[in-house]
Amino acid sequence: MNAREHSGWNAQLLRQAFVASRPVSWINTAYPFAAAMLLTTREVDWVLIVGAIYYLIPYNLAMYGINDVFDYASDINNPRKGGIEGALLAPKYHRPMLWLAALTNIPFLVVLAIAGGPGSWLALAVSTFAVLAYSAPVLRFKERPFIDSATSSTHFVSPAIVGLTAAGAHFTPELWLILLAFFCWGMAAHAFGAVQDVVPDREADIGSIATVLGAAATVRVALALWALAGVLMLFTPFPGPLAAIVAIPYLANCAPYARISDADSGRTNRAWRRFIWLNYASGALVTMILIVWWLRTA
């Protein structure tokens, strides 16, 4: 391979890595870390900036890139792949993608571990383990029904906990309640997202909460979890209860599929695509609520 071919191959790898990292979802992991740390320290320091960058791009590259490598057998039969919902990684990119994920994650993890001190090490370890365990061979938590949804939720809640521990936050019962509501939201999101893949996952002999429960039952579980997340927020200090409103659009988006058959489960992809954009609207509402909390506690 000459220099031009090598340069072109590297460029193609980076393009594949960009698609694999799901850029439309980057904010879903960077925001919890940055918000948790900012609301605790009330200042923007270098640790917040480094952590936000890490959870914005490298973390997502590892989480989704590893998934796309080891899910190739089912992804080739999945029409969703190849766009905003993930790359269809050719086998020649598998090993380089794993190396790229390692090389972009390890330095950030070392810096965050040093900056956060021992208090953040457990949170960082759990966060990193969840990313690896979800898709990596042998562990493959994504193929262990119910554990798959819990692990996926950990992907989004753990950055917030890392931010809180790095900032030296005091974990009150009210804070744990907020984190539990967030965890329920994450489990609901994963469960509903798994419904659209019932057919290709079964064809590839991949287990999930949706392949075990069936499409309709999984949708109802997601509805229950989103509703529970909203109810839990009602018991948090003001303005926390206002966040219960955030559950409503997710319930409305999911509810029409409560009786969907396994054969028609792919139709939920339309609602899943709406879900992706709902996250931005919900994030805007949550931001306004956090601003109110900031002003009230200043």
Question: How would you characterize this protein structure?
Answer:
The chain is mainly α and 298 residues long. Helices cover 71% and strands 0% of the residues. The protein is built from 14 helices and no strands. It has helices spanning 3-20, 27-41, 46-56, 58-70, 72-75, 94-116, 118-135, 147-166, 173-195, 198-203, 209-213, 215-233, 247-254, 269-296. α7 runs antiparallel to α8 (147-166). The longest helix has 28 residues, at 269-296. It is globular and about 55 Å long. The mean pLDDT is 92.
Question: Which runs of at least 5 residues are low in confidence (pLDDT < 50)?
Answer: none
Structural class: mainly alpha
* Number of E strands: 0
- The residue-averaged pLDDT reads 92
Radius of gyration: 19 Å
Can you give keywords for this protein?
about 300 residues; mainly alpha; 14 helices; about 0% strand
